[in-house]
Amino acid sequence: MKETMPYVICHMIPSVDGRIVTGRWPLPDAAYGCYERAAASFKADAWLIGRVSMAPYSGRGRVPRSAAPVPAGDFIAPHKAKSFAIALDPSGKLAFKKADIDGEHVITVLTGRASEAHKAYLRSTGVSYLIGGRETIDLRGVLRRMRSKFGIKKVLLEGGGKINGAMLKAGLIDELSLLMAPVADGTNGAATLFDSGEERHKAARLKLLSCETLAGGVVWLRYKVQR
Predict the structure, then answer these.
(1) Of 4, 12, 68, 78, which is most buried, counting CB atoms within 10 Å of its CB?
(2) Helix (H) or strand (E) holding 175
């Protein structure tokens, strides 16, 4: 049941045509300030992104080429944190140099594709990890363990289109928080807010919760996902 999992808010700053790669956009600093203030207003326990987005935060630690097998299953490192930075890293590529990001304890979500050496490295660094599945991540199961093992009740999902799309398709997003940037991107093939692949599935119905005009021409839309 959903109450055994965190409440998930997909918090993003897309263009008016749904693109999410912001690096080329002529956005004023005020727009990014609005995004951060809106994020803080939710008082979430954790934020969740993918491997590529997390790479700039992780550093470049040195993972040994091999290591003795580690105990099977999840690893919950000792910590006193009340908030968490979570990365989906199925193959185990992120070599965190430390166990926190600005005081938020790091949790990585791996699969059976991650090497023993990588898991041993994370243990030595004090980074917690959850094993999400053998080849692919069972998002529902991972969310349940975030709640049961870390006490996480509210998550800001700030992923790329594939992660956001997978979460939406699985019925795991409770709310959308979209700060619509005053930009029309139009780039063919650019990453979009939700990308569930070519497989057809039922569109999610949304109920508008609020609409607010912010600095820099940003419009903040909040929707409840209807089930």
Answers:
(1) 12
(2) strand 175-180
The mean pLDDT value for 153-166 works out to 95
Tokens, residue 133? 């599945």
- For 41, the enclosing helix (H) or strand (E) is helix 29-41
pLDDT band for position 2 (cuts 50, 70, 90): low
Q: Taking the domains of the chain in order of start, what are their residue ranges?
A: 1-45+160-227, 46-152
Q: What is the DSSP letter of 19?
A: B
Class of the domain covering 1-45+160-227: alpha beta
- 154: CB partners within 8 A, 6+ apart: 6, 7, 8, 9, 42, 43, 44, 45, 46
**For 161, phi and psi rounded to 5 degrees?**
-60, -35
Query: Nearest to residue 20, comparing CAs of 123, 130, 163, 149?
Result: 163
What is the C-alpha separation between 83 and 150, in angstroms, rounded? Answer: 9
Banded pLDDT at 211 (limits 50, 70, 90)? very high
The per-residue pLDDT for 142 is 97
Determine how β-strand 175-180 pairs with β-strand 7-12: parallel
* pLDDT tens digits along 175-204: 999 999 999 998 888 889 998 776 677 889
CA 141, chain centre distance (Å): 15
Residue closest to 35 by CA, chosen among 216, 174, 163, 225: 216
Q: pLDDT for 34-54, tens place per residue?
A: 999 999 999 999 999 999 999
57, burial (CB in 10 Å: exposed 0-12, middle 13-18, buried 19+):
middle
